[in-house]
Amino acid sequence: MKWESVVGIGAIPALLACVPVEARDYLDIRQVQEEFFPASTLTRVALKLEPDLRAQLRALSGIREPFNEDGVWRALNGGWLISDRVIGKHETIDYAVALDARGAVRGVEILRYSESYGGEVRGAEWRAQFTGKTSSDPVMLGKDIRNISGATLSAKHISQGVKRILLLHSLLLSKLPS
Amino acid sequence: MQVFIRSLAIALGIGCLIAGPATAGESPFGWIYTTEVMPPGEAEFETQSFLQHGQSQGEYDYLIQRFELELGLTPRFQLAGYLNFSRIDALANGVDGLTGGPGTDLGPGNDPTARYRHSRFDTASVEAIYQLRNPLTDRFGLALYLEPEYGAREQALEWRVMLQKNLLDDRLILAGNLFGAHERERESRSAIDRASMLDLSGGLSYRFRDHWSAGFELRNHREFSGYWYGAREHSAWFAGPNLHYAARRFWVTLAWRTQLPVVQTFADDQAAVTVGHRIYGDEHARQEFMLKFGIPIQRAAHGS
After folding, report:
1. pLDDT tens, B153-184?
2. pTM of the model
3. Which neighbouring-strand residues pair with B253?
4. Which of A68, B56, B203, B277 is buried most, with the most CB atoms less than 10 Å from its CB?
């Protein structure tokens, strides 16, 4: 028996690893716009977050993954649609959050889920927990957001991501001129 | 060895047919246990190929092949069953130029100057892991492990205390284990061999891109005579890298660690099998490799 046999065994998963993971696009941003802001015009808002604000968002939300500054739209009625990305178990998760004019969550949708597991976070019942949340709520897994056993990492990071968006509204978006 | 490769290929083939999405059972480390457990109702099939290679001279390869079925019972508790096999191939590898080393069992009919090659079923074992703290939702992860092992020639009881801390959006995993084992082994030429050991291991794994993690592991192994930490025998150190890949239907981890030239021996028979500040004899090899596969088993209904 030679150690090369161990390497030979390793060739089997290496071959399997070449099979690409199926990324699954569930919704695009236009569909989310239609869902939460039907027949409304949304205007993209160009953001450039200052380092201090970035640090504050990181400290308060716990998320280090850079915020998607190109994914912010404002509705005529004062609402907001924000798309962002967080880290999942093996890949990233693209999601969108719709806010009303007060900065409360109208809904959360999962756009792209390339994860190998944890798809339960797409369930409407789990996502409905975020409806009505504001920046003054904890929005924390295990506190006011119920966990999904087997999808803890995805659930945790999505919760942190929604929290970051609520904080962004409170600290910046609500202060932008109409 | 061909027996093991065939059985492994068959197991992988079966696993691929029943494979589902990867779950919490995956491990980015070669030897260190993390504190996450399988969700209730989730199961995983796993193989571990642990190769010890090379002593001070000659030829030496000792493969321990394990097949595991793991099942989550509650959000904090999982059980696993193992079948453990081994394959030894050694020739003139001893410090004295004779054939020997871990895994060998030369009886009166064996020529100590000749090649010793043997495959066998060693033991069956049951492993229980209970999670006290979840690294994803608590400040750190903490879990306890117990594994009794039984075979015709050897019996053992293993335990672990496992710690884990996640950082950087859970990209970076720091893990440490305190591991203990109490062993009884019947050998052909001698009476019953009783030994106990204490391992301190620690390491890190960092997800540097989607699907891929890499890291490092360090281990201190302390061996004692008797079942319950009698006289000290030696303290050896090992270190090396790990690499991990996880996809939808499986995960794989490859790790290597080398015995560092810093061994401490506490008995004459231990010093006698030390060369270049590394201990050999019936204790350790110079290089260790680990290859692990995990294949989650498809659930019948998967809510999404």
Report:
1. 999 999 999 999 999 999 999 999 999 999 99
2. 0.88
3. B244, B292
4. B203
Q: Closest to B247 (Cβ–Cβ): which among A9, A21, A120?
A: A21
In this complex, do A1 and B1 lie within 8 Å of one another by their Cβ atoms? Answer: yes
Distance between CA atoms of residues B292 and B297, nearest Å: 16
- CA B99 vs CA A5, A15, B89, B234: distances in Å: 22, 37, 10, 22
* Nearest beta carbon to residue A63 from set B23, B169, B287: B169
Compute the nearest-CA separation of A1 from chain B (Å).
6
Task: Give CA–CA dist A93/A90, Å, rounded.
Answer: 10
For each of chain A's 178 residues, which pLDDT tens digit applies?
444 455 445 545 544 544 444 556 778 888 889 899 998 889 999 899 999 999 999 999 999 999 999 999 999 989 999 999 999 888 889 999 999 999 999 999 999 876 655 677 888 999 999 999 999 999 999 999 999 888 899 999 999 999 999 999 999 999 998 7
CA distance linking residue A150 with residue B208, whole number of Å: 23
| B chain contacts of residue A117, beta-carbon cutoff 8 Å | 20-23, 296
Cβ-contact B4, B45 below 8 angstroms: no
Is B170 in contact with A87 (Cβ distance < 8 A)?
yes
Judging contacts by C-beta atoms under 8 Å, the chain B residues touching residue A67 are: none
Q: Which residues in chain B have their CB less than 8 angstroms from residue A150's CB?
A: 23-24, 39, 42
CB contacts, 8 Å: B248 with chain A: 21-22, 116
The shortest CB-CB distance from B248 to any of A9, A13, A21 is to A21
Q: Among B25, B13, B160, which residue's Cα sits nearest to residue B79?
A: B25
Tell me phi and psi for residue B95, to 5 degrees. Answer: -60, -30
- ipTM > 0.90, yes or no: no
Query: In the 8-state DSSP scheme, what is residue B19?
Result: B
Closest to A153 (Cβ–Cβ): which among B170, B246, B302? B170
Residue of chain B with shortest Cα separation from A142: B137
pLDDT tens profile B56-115: 999 999 999 999 999 999 999 999 999 999 999 999 999 999 999 999 988 888 899 999
The answer, for A87 touching chain B at a CB cutoff of 8 Å, is: yes
Q: How far is B251 from chain A (nearest CA, A)?
A: 8
Q: How far apart are CA B6 and CA B17, in angstroms?
A: 17
- pLDDT score recorded for residue A113: 79
pLDDT, tens digit, 9 for 90 and up, residues B237-287: 999 999 999 987 899 999 999 999 999 999 999 999 999 999 999 999 999
In which residue are the tokens 């065994």 written?
A9
